[in-house]
Amino acid sequence: MGVLGVDEVLARVLRERVVGYLEAVDRLAALEESRTTAFEARRLAAAWRALLGLHNLDGDCRACGRGRRMCSVWRVACAYFVHRLPWERRRFRQR
Question: How far apart (Å, rounded) are the C-alpha atoms in residues 40 and 59?
Fold first, then answer.
């Protein structure tokens, strides 16, 4: 196995974090008392998995025609599922 480049390592870490987040949604849905809420959470997570499966994280996304940069679908997923949102950052600092 060869040495991985920085982009490959970053892509792997981001993919693991996004997949981990979606798995956590599934686990939380299993604990939810409201069947409707649990169903909708699982459906939303499944839709994101399907969408992300159509797009390539590591810079050659044929689905959206992007070349060397991360595709917009993965950028949104990383922004919402990996990074903290602005209002979450403020709340985190106040504790």
Answer: 31
CA angle 73, 75, 76 (to 5 degrees): 65
CB-side exposure of 50: number of CA atoms within 13 Å? 6
DSSP 74: H
- Rounded Cα distance between 90 and 15, Å, is 26
The 10s digit of each residue's pLDDT in 3-43 is 556 678 888 888 999 999 999 999 989 888 888 989 999 99
DSSP string, 7-20: HHHHHHHHHHHHHH
Identify whether the C-beta of residue 18 lies closer than 8 Å to the C-beta of residue 77.
Answer: yes
Longest CA–CA separation in the chain, Å: 48
Q: CB within 8 A of 92, min separation 6: which ones? A: 84
Polymer length in residues for the chain: 95
Burial class (CB in 10 A: 0-12, 13-18, 19+), 68: exposed
